[in-house]
Write a structure and sequence with these properties.
- The chain is mainly alpha-helical.
- The protein has three domains: 45 residues; 180 residues, no CATH class; 100 residues.
- It contains ten helices and three strands.
- The chain has a three-stranded antiparallel beta sheet, with helices on one face.
- Strand 1 and strand 2 form a beta hairpin.
- Helix 6 runs antiparallel to helix 7.
- The longest helix is centred in the N-terminal third of the chain and has 37 residues.
């Protein structure tokens, strides 16, 4: 019989309570789980009835599921917040040599907003289940499953944010503006610090009022999410505006396709004096049998506008757009884009 077992048997014979013994031995560095196991062995010996076996595998699997669900959803909405703020920084501090946000950022921000709206409530529910389980089973504070998953979560979080910070630094070394670099670095460090504080303080220490800490963390997170959603919606606009922009992208792509077809037909003649613009878009369509050429608005079925100059190779293509472009260069309503049939058309659908 080892030292702990001898002490517990002597203390129980002296009338010490289980709660007192557990707290006393925890202060001496003994894990609560070990103390409870020895107490169980004492009661089994005293009563002559062996302890019933528990569903350890099932309970461990359930515990691991909720911890993994909480960690996965935490990573989901934290990364989504970081992505939105990165996009907003690019938008607020524009760089003349970086135009990537105009082609894909709107759709990306919409996806990240959706990820936050789904992942954060699931994270709160999973954490609530974990806290309820801990309240009912205090010995699970020192559970090996809990400890292992917490440390794995910290390791993965550290690797993710180190990778993000390396990416931000690499872009800075490639010439990105200093203001953008500093702002993005602060976002990465702030989110990483929040995750580490959450796990190391709220999940890793015994004796800390866990429910209070998690409630505070959820409240702070909700405030940050609200600010992020406001910034994101101010950039993307309402779902109705997103629909209008999607329709406008289709119109702009049609104009680009028409301009490319006019360029191909115009430059197909080797002699410049033989080159001429089509009289109408209908004539362009008639001269291209077997090819799909969209000369009408896909939504309203109204013909696109076509205005060739009397002489030369310049012309305009026009359409009615439903919303201003994200860049602000193109207004809503009827708008014409100038092209030169002698040059390869280069028209950004979001300009």
């Amino acid at each position: 019989m080892d030292e702990l077992a001898k002490f517990l048997r002597a203390a129980k014979q002296a009338g010490a309570s289980d709660a007192f013994l557990v707290e006393l031995l925890k202060q001496q560095g003994w894990p609560a789980r070990t103390v409870y196991q020895e107490l169980g062995a004492w009661y089994a010996e005293a009563t002559g009835v062996p302890m019933p076996s528990s569903r350890s595998t099932l309970e461990a699997a359930r515990e691991a599921f909720y911890h993994l669900l909480a960690f996965g959803t935490l990573g989901g909405w934290i990364c989504a917040i970081g992505s939105i703020w990165f996009t907003m920084i690019d938008y607020w501090v524009p760089d003349a040599i970086d135009r990537t946000y105009k082609s894909w950022a709107l759709r990306q921000v919409s996806w990240q907003i959706a990820a936050i709206l789904v992942a954060f409530p699931v994270f709160v529910l999973a954490t609530r289940s974990i806290l309820g389980d801990l309240a009912a089973n205090p010995d699970k504070t020192t559970s090996p499953v809990r400890r292992w998953l917490t440390n794995i979560a910290l390791l993965i979080t550290a690797l993710i944010f180190i990778g993000d910070l390396v990416s931000v630094l690499a872009v800075f070394l490639q010439g990105e503006l200093t203001q953008r670099f500093l702002a993005k670095s602060m976002v990465v460090l702030g989110l990483a610090g929040a995750v580490f504080a959450y796990y190391t303080r709220g999940m890793g220490k015994e004796g800390f009022p866990a429910r209070t800490w998690h409630t505070r963390f959820a409240a702070y997170a909700a405030g940050l999410i609200l600010a992020t959603l406001v910034a994101g919606f101010s950039y993307t606009g309402s779902p109705e505006r997103q629909r209008l922009l999607a329709e406008d992208r289709r119109r702009a792509q049609d104009l680009q396709s028409l301009a490319r077809k006019i360029y191909e037909d115009y430059t197909a003649w080797p002699l410049v004096q033989n080159r001429k613009l089509p009289a109408t878009l209908s004539a362009l369509e008639e001269n291209s049998p077997g090819q799909t050429i969209r000369t009408k608005d896909p939504i309203t079925e109204e013909p696109y506008g076509y205005q060739p100059e009397a002489t030369g190779s310049r012309y305009k293509l026009c359409a009615t757009f439903g919303a201003p472009s994200p860049s602000g260069k193109r207004p809503a309503g009827w708008h014409c884009v100038s092209f030169d049939a002698a040059k390869t058309p280069n028209y950004d659908p979001l300009d």
